[in-house]
């Protein structure tokens, strides 16, 4: 059995900043501030990690209560923003998911820094949520390597049988996606449709590197070898 674990932002979809803007607004409201003091870089991070970074940098308590308040505001803002932004499903994504989902020797899951509800809102808005039945999410873990471990465990639970980590493929658009694949012994497919270029991603030695997911033939032959 092969398992494909997909990142969301910059890999499957681009939300036209619906997520980032909702996150900044949620932070400012929850922290009772009017502006953000540091540049906010979200790529490859988890929602829990971003929360910790933001609150700590601004001298605010990284408490469970603040987390809950922040994430409730974020999810409400995200749901409102999604239909208002010019986002898109990235090239090749829909045909690749359609092709892989037809196979009975491939499982499709998520490995994302989004909280589970945020992932569901985004993917439902773009019409591709039904392809995924399990995943690792950013609700609990600040570090992506822990999310990768959780995604692998979710795949095992879903499948109900052993899966070799070498049969697991992590598809993502940032160095952190490549690093977390390596951390669980999985193979990485890096795609340059986010903020990182092919050259930047190459430095982290992914097992396969593509400019986008439109080259169905090389991606599926790499996965199905
Ligand atoms: Mg991403």
UniProtKB/TrEMBL annotation:
Signal peptide: none annotated. The keyword Hydrolase applies. GO terms for molecular function: phosphoglycolate phosphatase activity. Pathway: Organic acid metabolism; glycolate biosynthesis; glycolate from 2-phosphoglycolate: step 1/1. Its EC number is 3.1.3.18. Pfam families: HAD_2. It is an enzyme of class 3 (hydrolase). Keywords: Hydrolase. Transmembrane segments: none annotated. It catalyses: 2-phosphoglycolate + H2O = glycolate + phosphate. One of its GO terms (cellular component) is cytosol. GO terms for biological process: DNA repair. PANTHER family: PHOSPHOGLYCOLATE PHOSPHATASE. Belongs to the HAD-like hydrolase superfamily. CbbY/CbbZ/Gph/YieH family. This is phosphoglycolate phosphatase. It comes from Bremerella cremea. The lineage of its organism: Bacteria, Pseudomonadati, Planctomycetota, Planctomycetia, Pirellulales.
